[in-house]
Design a protein that fits this description.
single chain; 66 residues; 0% strand
Amino acid sequence: MQISKIPAKVAEFLSEVRLELKKVTWPTRQETIKYTTAVIVFSLVLSAFLGGLDFLFSWLLNKFVI
């Protein structure tokens, strides 16, 4: 690729990006809040579950092995 063609390629790329972004269906504010809340709740539940397993296995290891 020649260096003189780089600015034209960059401009073409950015115009294509702009066209593609116009095709995107963006979520509403309500949907964004709903999905964000679901992700946070799921993350908290999963971390509590994994923390509980870690505590259980640590306790079992200390109780019976060490």
